[in-house]
């Protein structure tokens, strides 16, 4: 009985050692909370013969230890590593996709103005960490949460914001 118990323990420790050698971890290069349209690099660690990522949706490749993930919806990615002894290890990470913020934009004065009158464009509730770029449609630009611009000509036009 003792011999069986010792054999079982040694066998178990050997299997555990093989499993531990094929461990996989994933380290994102940045936050896994991204805005729609942005990406994050996912880096799997460990040495293996092959790496396979799934699902393929939003990935630049499904093989290799490093991939770029740009999903359009929150997605859990899994990497499977095949080790030299043909055992496998897996790890998963969830990339959370947040909708792009839609800011409120105010302009003052808010009535029709003559050319040359400065108009102030502002974002009353700026998003933390966001940058604001303005294109006034006449070859001039601005940046920040509050900008002023005087249009040289009277008329209708578009001011874009990103």
In a nutshell, what does this entry contain?
By secondary structure, this protein is mainly beta. The protein has 1 helix and 13 strands, in the order αβββββββββββββ.
Throw out a few tags for this protein.
single chain, 162 residues, mainly beta, three-stranded antiparallel sheet, 38% strand
Element string (H = helix, E = strand): HEEEEEEEEEEEEE
Low-pLDDT stretches are 2-19
The strand line-up of the biggest sheet is 2-7-6-4
Shape: rod-shaped
Strand content: 35-45%
- Tell me the span between the first and last alpha carbons: 75 Å
Mean pLDDT across all residues, rounded? 82
Major sheet details: 4 strands, mixed
Helix fraction?
Answer: 10-25%
Structural class: mainly beta
Number of helices: 1
In total, the number of strands is 13
- Which radius of gyration do the C-alpha atoms yield? 27 Å
């Amino acid at each position: 009985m003792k011999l069986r118990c010792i054999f079982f323990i040694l066998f178990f420790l050997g299997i555990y050692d093989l499993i531990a050698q094929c461990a996989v971890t994933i380290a994102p290069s940045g936050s896994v909370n991204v805005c729609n349209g942005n990406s994050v690099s996912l880096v799997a660690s460990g040495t293996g013969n092959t790496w396979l990522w799934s699902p393929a949706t939003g990935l630049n490749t499904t093989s290799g230890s490093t991939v770029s993930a740009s999903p359009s919806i929150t997605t859990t990615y899994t990497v499977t590593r095949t080790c030299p002894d043909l055992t496998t290890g897996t790890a998963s990470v969830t990339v959370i996709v947040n909708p792009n913020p839609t800011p409120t934009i105010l302009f003052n004065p808010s009535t029709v103005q003559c050319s040359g009158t400065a108009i102030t464009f502002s974002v009353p509730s700026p998003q933390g960490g966001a940058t604001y770029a303005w294109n006034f449609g006449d070859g001039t630009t601005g940046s920040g949460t509050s900008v002023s611009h005087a249009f040289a000509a009277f008329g209708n036009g578009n001011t874009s914001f990103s």
